[in-house]
Amino acid sequence: MATVEMSFTPLPVHVRTARLVATAVARRSGVGEALLDEVRLAVGEACSRAVEAHQAQCPDEPVRVELTGANGRFEVVVTDAAAAGQDDGTSPTAQPAGWPAPGNGVPNGTSPLDHSGPPQGLGLAVIAGLADDVQFARTPAGLSIKMSWPSDGIR
Predict the structure, then answer these.
(1) Which of 10, 73, 93, 136 is most buried, by CB atoms within 10 Å?
(2) Collapsed DSSP state (helix, strand, coil) of residue 67
(3) pLDDT tens-digit series, residues 54-95
(4) Distance (Å) of CA 86 to CA 21, 43, 46, 130, 153
(5) Among residues 129, 49, 58, 138, which one has the least CA distance to residue 93?
(6) So where are the chain's domains?
(7) Cβ(89)–Cβ(108) under 8 Å?
(8) Which among 104, 98, 2, 8 is positioned nearest to 47, based on CA atoms?
(9) What's the pTM?
(10) Using CA atoms, how far apart are residues 26 and 36, in angstroms rounded to an integer?
(11) How many other C-beta atoms can be found within 10 angstroms of the C-beta atom of residue 18?
(12) Which CATH superfamily does the domain covering 4-109+122-150 fall into?
């Protein structure tokens, strides 16, 4: 199957469309019905995170999504164009914010008494729990989240 590429204005209303397109392409790529909810939720989390980053840093740049089904895998790559300097816990040497820091047990970017809201990296943790394989890559262009699931092939 060829790669399906889409980009959308960073508005929350477009996240639903991205989830629907991802689910349709996943189904067409042979992803099992039992995994389609995981695809939908993971793509929604990745796109929502990208929309938030864009609204804060580059509201005129589109969020980009690539969907590919080949070689027994369905793969989704969500890429934002937010500045690479933001501290979102996704640098290659850091764990996502809110995950235990090595050695001291205190979540990155918080104090032991800071319980004011969900950790910044919670969406990344959700994605990691939903996708079969996840890779985060910080590039000069922004953050790229690559997720994949097993598929039976094109139907």
Answers:
(1) 10
(2) strand
(3) 999 999 999 999 999 988 999 999 999 986 544 444 443 334
(4) 29, 22, 17, 25, 38
(5) 138
(6) 4-109+122-150
(7) yes
(8) 8
(9) 0.75
(10) 7
(11) 25
(12) Histidine kinase-like ATPase, C-terminal domain (3.30.565.10)
Q: What is the DSSP string of 16-65?
A: HHHHHHHHHHHHHTT--HHHHHHHHHHHHHHHHHHHHHHHHH-TTSPEEE
Tokens found for residue 46? 């990745």
Tokens for 135, please give them.
């890779």
8 contacts 62 by C-beta, under 8 angstroms: yes
Sign of CA dihedral 75, 81, 82, 83: positive
Round to whole Å and give the CA distance between 82 and 10.
11
The tokens describing 129, both together, are: 């729990």
Which residues lie closer than 8 Å to 75 by C-beta, 6 or more apart? 66, 67, 68, 69, 146, 147, 148
Measured between alpha carbons, how far is 26 from 149 in angstroms, rounded to an integer?
Answer: 9
pLDDT in tens, 93-141: 334 444 333 333 433 333 333 333 333 567 788 898 999 999 988 877 7
CB 47 within 8 A of CB 114: no
What CA–CA distance (Å, rounded) separates 98 from 78?
21
